[in-house]
Model the fold of this input.
Amino acid sequence: MRAFNLILALAVLFLPMAGCEGPLAPRDPPTPETSLLPALPTAQAYVDAWQGEDYEAMYALLSSSAQEGITEEEFIWVHESVMKEATVLAHHLEIGELVEGEATAQAAFTLTLDTILLGTPQVDNELRLIWEDVGWRVDWSPEVILPSLSSDNLVYLHRLTSTRANVYDRNGKPLAVEGSMVTVGVVPQDIEDESNLLAELSRILNMSWHDIQSLYAAPGVQPHWFVPIADLSFEDSLVHAEVLNSLPGVMLRETPIRTYPQGDLAAHIVGYMGEISQQELATLEAQGYVEGDAIGKAGLERWGETYLAGRAGGLLTIVTPEGKLVDTTAEYPATQSRSIYSTIDLELQRIAEEALGDHRGAVVALNPSNGEVLAMATNPRFDPNELTWGRFEETRWEALVSDPASPLVNRATQGTYPSGSVFKVVTAAAGMEGAGYSPQTTINCTGSWAGLGPGWTKYDWLRTGHGAMDFRSAIVRSCDVFFWEMGLRLNSIDADLLPSFSHGFGFGEPTGVDAIDESAGLVPDPEWKEEFFTGEGNPFWVPGDAVNLAVGQGDLLATPLQVANMMAAIANGGILYQPHLVMRISGTPQEEEQIFTSSERGRLPISEANLQIVREGLDGVTTDAGGTAYYAFDGAAFTSAGKTGTAETPDEKPHAWFAGYAPVEDPQIAVAVVVENSGEGSVFAAPICRQVMEAYLFGPPPAEPSEET
Done:
């Protein structure tokens, strides 16, 4: 530019010498022999201004005839509108060969666009210049932006999208698929028998005559309009197709819609879709999303949005005002969507949900050898079909949100509960491994315990007492006195000893499960209590806190997934896996299938020998005559191990827990069950666990024969 300015200054200085008589006359058109100013600096200045989006400077370089044809405001608007339509994020211009003629010049240039939907297309074009009395100027027209664009045509971007992919269980059974919704509408001018039309639509759509008629007879509705009345599922539309197609004035329109063929089964895992919010759009706009798009809002639908939706592409065209195609400027295909295969066994999921029945609670089943989630049931549930965009009703959403039973909460991962006696396995591990107690260490249980002082006597669940208990027998019989005393002893050694082992067994922190939200739970310790305690009682850590923690009470909170993961680690020899719900992502011609493998979070802080004592205790819970779950598993065709829990709550009834694994000799499944405010774990939770284990090991029970009609 400095060279250009210098040449321009010299030209101005020498102009008076070219004609000394009278005022300056307009310059003659330059020739190769007489031109003082080359066209390149002007072309480069225009391209540089365009690169910097300095549209005012660009406009100043236009020829007088070009400026007469478009105002500066219009010039700026045209450029910005074309760039916006083409989803341009940035652009780069590079000038090429320039050819000068008599009073004209042509500069080749390449415009490279960095876009959201079109990739990075390159547009080869030409910048025309003409000589005016003020020097070289750009002979501008819309073709300078895009070669086929004219003042009469329009730029139009066709957004290309991939059909949303499906979600399956581990065996390929559908959990979320693309379906159809049929909108039943009325075209008023085509109605022949209004009474018959209203009668049939009222019957099929379950609407009153008045409600139907008020839609197509509303003020402002034109006779030729298609007026939507109600939506039907594709299946229901087939049932009523013959009648609907026979009614003059009725028209059906089919629309793609997300459907969940299993209804509320595994709803919290699969999730649902909804309209993109402004906050989500601010994040996803750069990936090709636009206002009005539907995206995954929860579960696998949300986690796998990138896979399931693919990525939008685009087709940038020049069209006439009537929509006729003039030219295709750029095309970028949509990235193909990819289906998700989850680790869930649909039939096991069904058994788990049916076993819960109407009880509030959760069931989690894991593969102990790799952390795969085989089933994750929670109750109450919701039907994602009711929340799908296109069927969504605000009143239904408000009802779900305000429901005191919290059906939108996944109790398996977001529900936090005191774990009760299930936690005693952690206390046993801390006693043997952390404090160095021998597995044969005995504590005599008389049915009561006054270790915190005579004014704080506590009573075992068996008031008559269990007698002399070692670690194994204390687990088998779930002896409170043994673990209260052990908690007190551990606290006297180190107040952080038991909390530390709790974390080592996976409590108080997220499991890292993919696809769904989870709570970290809570493991209380001296530091936490001093900083966060807001309840009643001593604000500092006292021995009673450790005693409560030792039996899974007090401020301890755990999720069913954390408990199941702990039991899976005990079953597999001590490996804490990161639970996962995604088994694989399908491949495409462009991308290979993606397999998700197990990932270790850590190892239980216990030796193999001491872990074996814990395992023997859990085995005795279901097999010893005095085991707390003996009757729940009596007669089972498989071996099992586990731990009951009855967690006290502020409510009238405690939470029932059972967690275990099977078979003992080769663990293939680990299960945790919690039934809220029901009673004892051996009565309410253990039978559910048995049903789930039996279904997994031997297949679901045969369906009961239907009664003949």
